[in-house]
């Protein structure tokens, strides 16, 4: 029998790997619906759907390895990072799906969520007030009108597989939908901004770096408490709190 490997697990969902098959268990049927539909529409390589029996979605493993993970070493040549940038641009240039995604929340909704979260981070003593205040100022640049794009919504480097300099697939599409393209880019280079020039080389130069940094701060501020509640450590080297400290 193949070894069962836990890829990720928390209160919302879990992903297991059994041999060459990934099993995603998600009690929220709507998220699985979005994932399957988004993969069918995305103009980039995605895992093959093998079968689906709620609450489980089975997909084939992808060739190659990921570019790394947040808080860990990044791998891949400059050409591989550029290839990832080109694949992301191809996604963003495609007609967006008809539903809003994680990267498509309204400015008013995001502003309220951000302000409420910043208050909780300080009053509960999770982060120092000066760190929160500075990153809230940086995050303001993300709170502006944007043109809807086809966004992945959770484009961590651990979700992009490469083989040599070729992108072989992008996984985890449950947050996909219409959104701000720069949110995806900020998520992708979070904690690994040393590769931003390579990504831009593949993506194109029409990128507002202030907005990229703003989304990084905003995303990190919103993630800290929820990650702690799910058993992850945003204070680990290279993770969300280090991203926030880099703005000081």
From TrEMBL:
Gene3D superfamilies: 3.90.1200.10. It comes from Streptomyces afghaniensis 772. It comes from the Bacteria. This is Aminoglycoside phosphotransferase domain-containing protein. Residues 42-204 form the Aminoglycoside phosphotransferase domain. InterPro entries: AGP_Transferase (IPR051678), Aminoglycoside_PTrfase (IPR002575), Kinase-like_dom_sf (IPR011009).
